[in-house]
Amino acid sequence: MLLSDSIISIKNIGEERSKKLQKLNIFTINDLIEYFPRDYDDRSNVCKIKDIELNKINTVKGKVISKPETIKIKHLSITKIRIDDGSGFLEIAWFNQPYLKNTIKYKSEYIFTGKVIQKYGRTQMEAPDYELIDDKELLSNGRIVPVYASTYKFSQKLFREVISQTLSSVKDQITEFLPQDILKENNLCSRQFAIENIHFPKDNKSFFIARNRLVFEELFLLQTKLLQIKGIMEHKECNINIKNTDITPIKNVLPFNLTDAQESVLKDIIYDLGKNKAMNRLIQGDVGSGKTVIAQILAYISVNNGYQVAIMAPTDVLASQHFESFKNIFEKLNIKCVFLSGNQKAKEKRENYELIQTGEAKIVVGTHAIIQDKVIFNNLGVVITDEQHRFGVKQREILSKKGENPHTLVMTATPIPRTLALILYGDLDISIIDKLPPGRQKIDTIFVNSTYYPRIYNFLKKNSDEKRQSYIICPMIEENEKMELKAVLSYTQKLKEEVFLGYNVECIHGKMKTNEKQEIMNKFYNGDIDILISTTVIEVGINVPNSTIMVIENAERFGISQLHQLRGRVGRGSDKSYCILISDSKSKQSKQRLETMVKYSDGFVLSEKDLELRGTGDFFGTRQHGIPDMKIANLYKDIEILKQVQKASIKLYKQDPLLLDNKNKPLKEKIDQFFNTLDNTVSL
Ligand code: ADP
Ligand code: MG
Fold first, then answer.
1. Which domain, by its residues, includes 112?
2. What is the CATH number of the domain that holds 102?
3. Number of domains observed in the structure of the chain
4. What pTM, to 2 d.p., does this model score?
5. What is the CATH number of the domain that holds 159?
6. CA of 437 to the centre of ligand 1 (A)
7. Helix 260-274 / helix 292-304 crossing angle, nearest 10 deg
């Protein structure tokens, strides 16, 4: 059996089971052994029967001293045994698993993990995991036990067996690909040790050693690849010839002067355009810092030099908002913009394709629709993507390929600490807009509990009376979308009929059709809605300067970066704005998060605080949000490893940028393979 073989060559895996595994993206033996546990159960503490703790999960080891028997009570079948471990006896019962009568062997020794309860004066272990004690390694009991995320109806037990069995037969093929000096300098264990112990850790320490190595490896592959991409881009010739960078005409039609921060970013861009290499730049700017106008000026320069421009936004609402804003400016300059969206009628699309292909349309704004095969540009010079974190590296690549190595500009409103930026956007140069446009007042943020509703409602009414608008955000969680949606709709109804009589209240949510959403948003833009109740479809990037109050209900459900994005929807005009966080949560962490929001308003500071708050706690069973899903690394918690990785990866890159040295050959192969498996869902 080879690592590259299909999983079907595993003994217990036939057609049917292999199909299930494929749903988990497990196709080869290698995929299987790199399917790491999501969590662990510490069952290493085997206790004596006399020391059992009631109402807790216990692990005991004992000999079966009664023949298993199954009794039936109505629809319930109960299979029972008694065991003895020298310190006492224990009764064990399973429900509706009558076959166990023939599986559990009388007089054999087993290990059991299950909850022990007392019922009608009898002490019983209920429905435990069991494992025969023989000369085979224990997998599910008496040790730290792996728990796999999703197993598609495979029991955890079977999954463990399959992994263990596979591991033992391919163990010797797990070879090292990290160069020796990197292993040494960073104190990393061998790959073989790591893979074995991530699945079946010998003890706590081995787990941490294994995890450390695998996190390092994952981040290192990614970081090194990004450095390579950056290096390659920096060396690639670019034939897009931007000679004229006079921007006076567009500045003359803009309704405001650029801030110093905007000017400085623009300087970076114009500098890039002057080299004969393609620009690959990321603009990081806090919400409302004015990134759009930078995109517009860049678009102007491109068009003025005879090249088309593509601007891609992640959602219809955002794309059409951009389109309106571009159209407003470029109409005045007699430059044609078109809009592309998946929801357009076939005829409209065809007409647009035509305009793009002939080069009549100079600026194309749209969603993913822009990267369709049918869209053929005449002479694409600049590609701009907004809110990059929602697009994949692949999508960015496809869009770039529509031109001949065009200049690319990426805009994101998610401020992130430098260390993270280097791994999320390691292939890009970074410019930061670090000041907001003038005249903005600080958004007052308050954190209250639900006893404040009456006052909040009055505050919203007063705001509407003064012809300003407000948002109320009600979060939905996916598990029970239907119920939540119902709750949001009936809440809207209640607010309309009982609280905000005579005001225009509307609801927008993720289950609406695109054109319904668009219609509501248009009404909101036009000021025809006083209070917009929304689930989180209020997109990052929505710009309605007349809205000044953001109420966030169940605020504990959001992370800092989301709260910051939501808060950024207000305070966009010159009027004083407020953000009201409502939460009854008792959790210390949630409170801390919300208090942090009250205290700080700068996105970059918040992102650092966020990192600190999330960095505490243990590794087991935690998930990260808002940043790409990695196999094992957690960018929030593994920041120390990430720093180590960045040092090592930069050092290596300086020595051997293309990994041509013989000692780096296995690493090069692994990186190529690793990058091929990054699909569109991994957004970087
Ligand atoms: P974001 O960076 O979040 O995308 P936008 O580009 O949407 O921000 O800009 C937010 C608001 O600030 C818009 O209403 C825009 O017209 C305004 N704005 C941008 N730059 C300036 C400026 N230099 N002076 C005044 N207002 C500005
Ligand atoms: Mg924006």
1. 45-142
2. 2.40.50.140
3. 5
4. 0.70
5. 1.10.150
6. 7
7. 30
The CA 427 to ligand 2 mean position distance, Å, reads 22
Q: Residues 532, 508: contact at Cβ < 8 Å?
A: yes
pLDDT digits (tens, 9 = 90+) for 430-489: 898 988 888 778 899 999 999 999 999 999 999 999 999 999 998 875 556 777 777 888
For ligand 1, atom 20, which residue shows the shortest CA distance? 290
For residue 462, what is the domain's CATH number? 3.40.50.300
- State the closest ligand 1 atom to the C-alpha of 287, by its place in the atom list counted from 1: 3
Give the pLDDT band (50/70/90) at residue 82: very high
Would you say the CB of residue 49 lies under 6 angstroms from ligand 1?
no
CA separation for the pair 622, 368 (Å, rounded): 32
CA of 288 from ligand 1 middle (Å) equals 6
Mean pLDDT of 76-88: 95
* Residue 533 CA to ligand 2 centre (angstroms): 21
Interval 533-545: pLDDT, tens: 998 766 556 789 9
Whether 387 and 311 have beta carbons less than 8 Å apart is answered as: no
Q: Do 383 and 300 belong together in one domain?
A: yes
| Whole-angstrom distance, CA of residue 486 vs CA of residue 369 | 32
Q: Is any ligand 1 atom within 6 A of the Cβ of residue 569?
A: no
Residues 123 and 90 in one domain: yes
Identify which of 247, 254, 256, 320 to mutate to test ligand 1's pocket (most ligand atoms within 8 A of the CB): 256
Ligand nearest to the CA of 263: 1
Does residue 659 lie in a domain region? no
Q: Where are the alpha helices (DSSP H) in 70-190?
A: 100-103, 156-170, 180-185
Give the E-state strand segments of 401-468 in sequence order.
407-412, 429-433, 444-448
Find out whether the beta carbon of 263 lies less than 6 Å from any atom of ligand 1.
no
Mean pLDDT of 628-650: 85
pLDDT at 620 over 50: no
Looking at residue 352, what is its pLDDT? 96
Side chain identity, residue 83? I
The identity of residue 129, as a single letter, is D
366 C-beta closer than 6 A to ligand 1: no
149, exposed or middle or buried, with CB in 10 Å at 0-12, 13-18, 19+?
exposed
- Amino acid (1-letter code) at residue 143: R
Does the CB atom of residue 152 touch ligand 1 within 6 A?
Answer: no
Question: Which ligand 1 atom is nearest residue 259's CA?
Answer: 23
What the block records as the tokens of 560 is 């800092």
Q: What is the pLDDT of residues 219-236, one digit of tens each?
A: 999 899 888 888 877 777
111 lines ligand 1 (CB under 6 A): no
In this prediction, residue 619 has a pLDDT band, given cuts at 50, 70 and 90, of: very low
- Rounded to whole angstroms, how far apart are CA atoms 531 and 500? 9
Q: 3-state SS of 260-276?
A: HHHHHHHHHHHHHHHCC
Sheet containing strand 444-448, edge to edge, reads: 444-448, 578-582, 547-552, 469-473, 531-534, 505-508
Q: Distance between terminal CA atoms of the chain? A: 35
Ligand nearest to the CA of 385: 2
Is the per-residue pLDDT at 201 higher than 60? Answer: yes
Ligand 1: which residue has its CA nearest to atom 27? 437
In a domain, 470, yes or no: yes
Are 107 and 101 within 8 A, CB to CB?
no
